[in-house]
Amino acid sequence: MITAADLTAFFLTIRLALVSTLILFLIGTPVAWWLARTRWSMKFIADAVIALPLVLPPTVLGFYLLLLLGANGPLSALTSGTLAFSFTGLVLGSVIYSMPFVIQPLQDAFRAVGNRPHEVAATLGATPLDRFISITLPMARPGFLTAGVLGFAHTLGEFGVVLMIGGNIPGETRVLSIAIYDHVESLNYASAHWLAGALLVLSFIMLAAVYAVNRQFRVMKL
Amino acid sequence: MSLDIIFTLRRQEFTLDLNLKLPDEGVTAIFGPSGSGKTTLLRAIAGLERIPGAYIRFRKDLWQNEDTFIPVHKRNVGVVFQVPSLFSHLDVRGNIEYGYKRVTKKHQRISLNEAIELLEIDHLLDRNPVELSGGEQQRVAIARTLAASPDLLLMDEPLSSLDNKLKLTILPYLEKLQRTLEIPIIYVSHSTDEVARLAEQLVILKNGEILGHGRIEDMLTRLDLPLSHRSDAEALLSATVIDTDTDFGLTRLDVDGNVVTVTGTNLTENDLVKLRIAAHDVSLTLDKQSGTSIQNILPVTVTQIEEENSAQTLVKLSLGSHFLLARITRRAVQDLDITLGKNLYAQIKSVAVLS
Predict the structure, then answer these.
(1) B129 inside 8 A of chain A by CB
(2) Taking CB atoms and an 8 Å cutoff, what residues of chain B touch A134?
(3) Which of A123, A91, A85, A92 is nearest to B154 (CA)?
(4) CA distance to partner chain A, nearest, from residue B71 (Å)
(5) In this predicted structure, what is the pLDDT of residue A58?
(6) Please, which residues bridge with residue B302 across strands?
(7) pLDDT confidence bin for B107, thresholds 50/70/90
(8) How far apart, in whole angstroms, are the C-alpha atoms of residue B285 and residue B330?
């Protein structure tokens, strides 16, 4: 019972998760690197801010994002139109919402690699960037895999934030979780089943894969 | 040309206050108990630690002063750490090539093969670091450091993570490095045995303070320094091989015109060696004894006497340009009337040869 609209929602969700994960890697890697190595005494504040999306109801996050992105929000001055109810707004929301799921595994991985391999590489003539590429990236690979899968899977299942800032525009902001919600609301359980089942199986396969690859590595530490 | 280090670092337990001019050749050992600041000194030289206000210069290159800090990767120092710290995502070959690939051709003084042969690890090249024993890992780590052709080699207790049996398997490689490479080595250790075998110069650190700095022979026998008061106190003498006696399996050596006999015949004529003589293996007599099984009886002069406790006294003796230590009872000092400048005979029960 999958309709064209459902497929659109499915691919939109995948696209949202991919784009968000990519941005999360770009932001999360340097932040996690810094958090893993800093001796700053106020680090706990940064830790708390990044962990906030884990405990806050997504609607609270969505509410603040709505204020921030809305037509009268501070960010609207920077953009031609409003970011709320747009794909870009959804990406922004997803990035914040899934941030801890990417930063924590990366931070753990960087910490597990430790400082010594870096020091050794430095004494062998490697520049900081060279060290990061030739030592950190390969040694922290399990962490990157975990971070990627968790960030991706968590964005797939996003609902509350989308509901607040995304609305329900087909092809723009109508993601899977919203589509499922709509089907249930209109008592169309068969379609809801198909979509929910697809999401369940997809998420399970990804998590099973990452746990299988990283047998020695704890995937989530909360 | 030298390695100059000046810095003050306040720590909770002590203040590390250093002003050192180390030779830029041979092996200089930094000796001291754990927590005396040895590792900090080494890390500061490498640039792994940035000590505020430090001044560090190696030969013509200023590495650190108030407005300069040359980062580690531009100093061209090799560091061998206590723990081998091999890169676990690379095999042995990948580890050794890591530094080698990053040296410019102009700077390359040690080839990959030389490093591999020196440490005898060619059979390990395709293995993963985790499959190696601790001793093999440290040999790979040393080869990796050498293959990067460092101008200065820093070793931070490279044997301390190994058990005694493994230590003995690595020491010969280190001795070979010291003999064959023209790289100055700074060797941090708290083992007198390693220091005596490897070092030419010795810096003694305690609680962040330099107690003494100079030739190892002098540092071992200076009574105002702690080494001479350890139970394993010893003296080092340089000697030249005169000849070997294959019948009895003995070798005769010359020490400033005196003949010293040692067991073994694996040395050849005119070889230069170091002799180790422990303070508890030396006894003193007023006259040259005959009818004794002791082979080495040498004429010495008393240069210093120090009572260590109510029973024991440490006597420093000169033998030509060399010094010996003798640990004898306080009563013997009284009975023999041992005073400064007195000429005596030292009976040496055991002599160890370091090649």
Answers:
(1) no
(2) 98
(3) A123
(4) 9
(5) 86
(6) B317
(7) confident
(8) 14
Please write the tens of the pLDDT for every residue from A104-158.
999 999 999 888 999 999 999 999 999 999 999 999 988 999 899 999 988 988 8
Q: How confident is the model at residue A217 (pLDDT cuts 50, 70, 90)?
A: low
Would you call A120 and B103 a contact, using CB atoms and an 8 Å cutoff? no
Contact (CB, 8 A) for B329 and B312: yes
Nearest CB to B85: which of A117, A130, A138? A117
d(CA A204, CA B137): 41
Q: Which amino acid is at A21?
A: T
Q: By three-state DSSP, how is residue B201 classified?
A: strand
Answer yes or no: are the C-beta atoms of B28 and B203 closer than 8 Å. yes
Please indicate whether, in this complex, the C-beta atoms of B144 and A138 are within 8 angstroms of each other.
no
> CB–CB of A123 and B48 under 8 A?
yes
Look at residue B44 and tell me whether its pLDDT is greater than 60.
yes
Which of A124, A127, A139, A217 would best serve as a mutation to test chain B binding (most B beta carbons within 10 A)?
Answer: A124
In terms of CATH, what superfamily is A4-221?
A: MetI-like (1.10.3720.10)
Average pLDDT, chain B: 91
Our CA-based measurement puts residue A6 at a distance from the nearest CA of chain B, in whole angstroms, of: 44
Q: How many CB atoms lie within 10 A of CB A169?
A: 13
Alpha-carbon torsion angle B122, B125, B129, B131, nearest 10: -80
Angle, alpha carbons B176-B179-B180 (nearest 5°): 80
Which residues in chain A are closer than 8 Å to B149, comparing Cβ atoms? none
Lowest-pLDDT range, A83-92, B115-124, B135-144, B218-227? A83-92
- Distances, alpha carbon B185 to alpha carbons A209, A214, B143, B148, in Å: 49, 42, 14, 15
Tell me the pTM.
Answer: 0.82
Residue A182 has pLDDT above 90, yes or no: no
Report CA Rg, chain A. 19
CB A20 within 8 Å of CB A95: yes
Q: Where are the domains of chain A?
A: 4-221
Residues of chain A with Cβ-Cβ distance to B102 below 8 Å are 124-126, 130
Which residues in chain B touch residue A130, judged by CB atoms under 8 angstroms apart? 102
Q: Is B109 helix (H, G, I), strand (E, B) or coil?
A: coil
